[in-house]
Design a protein that fits this description.
With 239 residues, the protein is of the alpha/beta class. It has eleven helices and six strands. A six-stranded mixed beta sheet has the order 1-2-3-6-4-5, sandwiched between helices.
């Protein structure tokens, strides 16, 4: 197993190349509301022509990105019966947060992940949804919190849904260079260390394991830039 530090001239600065078990992996670290990230995902897949494209999505998040009518057709009573209210609130909060960023930056949230999905279909590559199911992640995260922390977190989620905060021009330029979703999770983990393991560490492990298990000899993976350092530490290890 090796981390190849000598990047190919056709690849962008945010692409990490790893080799092991007869496979080559190209991990594209993205910002979730960046036009440059979309272009880098598309150009990397065009240049590599991989056997498989992995994206930082689970089935639930994939459906949310690809089905525009999903929320319109949502049965709220079914959500409550299935115990998925936390999932709904978290999706609404993250969605509202990313939509605000997207409006400021002119990019739809998750557009770079969608670009990876579309490119996989375009070149006939296998598509791998590499992230752990969000419901499992949220349940494990929620279970690690005290009652007081849960109340604080719910307050923050509900507050984010009605926030009208706007961004200054300088902040917008900084956002273009960052993976805001990963940064938001990292900040939550800093304030509540109990969520670090289920929300970040376990997902880094899960993502790397799924990507290593992906079929084919050449794999391109599209993940938030904040995951890349952690994923590299788990490369080649049994999870």
């Amino acid at each position: 197993m090796s981390d190849v530090s000598d990047p190919s001239p056709v690849l962008g600065a945010n692409v990490t190349r790893l080799e092991g078990n007869g496979k080559t992996y190209y991990i594209v670290g993205t910002a979730h509301v960046s036009k440059e990230s979309i272009q880098e995902v598309e150009s990397t897949i065009d240049a590599i022509k991989p056997d498989t494209v992995c994206v930082e999505l689970c089935n639930t998040r994939h459906q949310a990105l690809t089905d525009n009518n999903r929320w319109k057709n949502l049965d709220i009573f079914k959500v409550i019966r299935e115990g998925k209210m936390l999932l709904l609130l978290a999706n609404l909060a993250v969605g509202a947060y990313q939509r605000r960023l997207g409006q400021e930056l002119g990019v739809e949230p998750g557009a770079e992940l969608l670009a990876g999905v579309k490119k996989a279909e375009e070149i006939g590559a296998e598509l791998c949804l590499a992230d752990r199911e969000i419901q499992a992640t949220l349940k494990r995260t929620w279970g690690n919190l005290t009652l007081w922390q849960k109340l604080n977190l719910l307050g923050g989620i509900l507050g984010s849904l009605v926030s009208t905060e706007t961004l200054e021009a300088e902040q917008i330029e900084q956002l273009k260079e960052k993976d805001q979703l990963s940064e938001m999770m990292a900040e939550l983990a800093r304030v509540m260390p109990e969520v670090q393991k289920p929300l970040i560490d376990e997902r880094d492990q899960y993502l790397m394991s799924k990507i290593e298990d992906a079929p084919g000899e050449t794999i391109v993976a599209v993940v938030g830039a904040g995951h890349v350092p952690g994923m590299k530490t788990y490369f080649g290890k049994t999870i």
